[in-house]
Write a structure and sequence with these properties.
Blueprint: H1 3-18, E1 20-25, H2 30-35, E2 38-40, H3 42-51, E3 56-60, H4 63-72, E4 77-79, E5 101-102, H5 122-128, E6 134-137, H6 142-146, E7 150-152, H7 157-163, E8 168-172, H8 175-184, E9 188-192, H9 197-200, H10 204-213, E10 218-221, H11 227-230, E11 235-236, H12 239-248, E12 253-257, H13 262-269, E13 274-277, H14 292-301, H15 310-326
Parallel strand pairs: 1-2, 1-3, 3-4, 6-7, 6-8, 8-9, 10-11, 10-12, 12-13
Antiparallel strand pairs: 5-9
Helix pairs in contact: 1-14, 3-4, 4-15, 12-13
Bound molecules: 1,3-dihydroxyacetonephosphate (13P) and iron/sulfur cluster.
Length: 327
């Protein structure tokens, strides 16, 4: 028996013994996706975490995802195999000390060059725009969610904003997702200045180059990419949206504008189709921290437990539940 299959066997035995289920985000390493009970995008994994029947959830992803699982399923033990697996974008906004906010995107109230002071907080932006609902991307910490009216994911951002009874919304923290939402709604979007370093690095020139190399390929892009990239894409959607699109499309070749972990499932499940990364370096180091060994260690030692304090969990759950009700 190889080392890898011995580790997989041990994981399966411990899973049964502890009544545990493994959830893995679409960006996880191939071998981790293979042992997962469910893979998916943030929205799908939130739905599963809210309804799953088990005692222990092992969340193979980054910390805000495990936090959301714990918020939605407080009676279950939620384990994050790698405690340092964070999301730099989620850290770009805090309730008590945060980054700049911007309103200089097409369709926004246009104030180019205007930034709020560096110590600006989510509470400050709420004070400046009293009564304007805060739509918070799930890529945030629990306390930011707790200060929000409703959450959204890359799959439902436009629907969430459209569902609100207000012609102005505050969207945090991703400036690119906010710009994408702003381009799809008549509502005024007040955006934060956060971004995902994996998606932000892609430019319109990258799309031109890869299109030249593969002229018949359909370009799919994640809304965390810059607007100049989204404008050149054929279809903009979440990670699982890309999977559904590629499976149902008549096209034979696809350029995938998101983290390269998504290519694994696409290639495996569509042997008659060809997939190319938009850029080979679209790799999220935090998503790649989780290995089979860390999953095994996590089940053996029941670490690292993710638990959100009740005073934060209850209002954060309200924002997540409100999102889940919209779809
Ligand atoms: P999805 O919800 O589309 O899977 O995206 C999550 C994420 O972290 C993108 O960088
Ligand atoms: Fe965060 Fe980007 Fe990694 Fe997603 S890909 S977890 S947004 S850093």
């Amino acid at each position: 028996m190889t080392d890898r299959s011995a580790v997989v066997d041990k994981i399966q035995t411990l899973k049964k013994k502890k009544n545990a289920l493994i959830l893995a985000h679409n960006y996880q390493r191939e071998e981790v996706q293979d042992i997962a009970d469910h893979t998916g995008d943030s929205l799908e994994l939130s739905r599963i975490a809210a309804s799953i029947d088990c005692e222990v959830i092992v969340f193979c992803g980054v910390n805000f995802m495990a936090e959301s699982a714990s918020i939605l399923s407080p009676d279950k033990m939620v384990l994050l195999p790698e405690i340092s697996a964070g999301c730099p974008m989620a850290d770009m906004i805090t309730v008590g000390g945060a980054r700049n906010a911007r309103t200089d995107f097409p369709g926004f109230r246009y104030e180019r060059g205007y930034t709020y002071p560096a110590e600006f907080t989510l509470k400050d932006i709420k004070k400046i725009h009293p009564g304007v609902p805060v739509v918070t991307y799930v890529n945030t910490t629990a306390d930011v969610k707790a200060e929000s009216d409703i959450c959204c994911t890359s799959a439902n951002g436009v629907r969430i904003v459209e569902s609100l009874d207000s012609d102005k919304v505050i969207c945090v923290p991703d400036k690119n997702l906010s710009a994408w939402i702003a381009s799809k709604t008549k509502k005024e979007v007040i955006a934060w200045d956060g971004f995902c370093h994996v998606h932000e690095r892609v430019t319109a020139d990258d799309v031109d180059v890869v299109r030249q190399e593969h002229p018949d390929a359909v370009v799919l892009a994640h809304p965390e990419c810059r607007m100049e990239v989204l404008e050149k894409a054929d279809h903009v959607t979440s990670t699982s949206g890309m999977i559904r699109f590629a499976e149902s499309s008549e096209a034979k070749e696809f350029i995938i504008g998101t983290e390269t972990g998504l290519l694994y499932g696409l290639i495996k499940n569509n042997p008659d189709k060809i997939f190319y990364p938009l850029r080979k370096d679209m790799v999220c180091p935090n998503m790649k921290k989780t290995s089979l060994n860390s999953v095994l260690h996590c089940l053996e030692s029941e670490t690292y437990k993710i638990k959100v304090p009740e005073e934060i969990r209850v209002p954060a759950k309200k924002a997540l539940d409100r999102m889940l009700e919209v779809n």
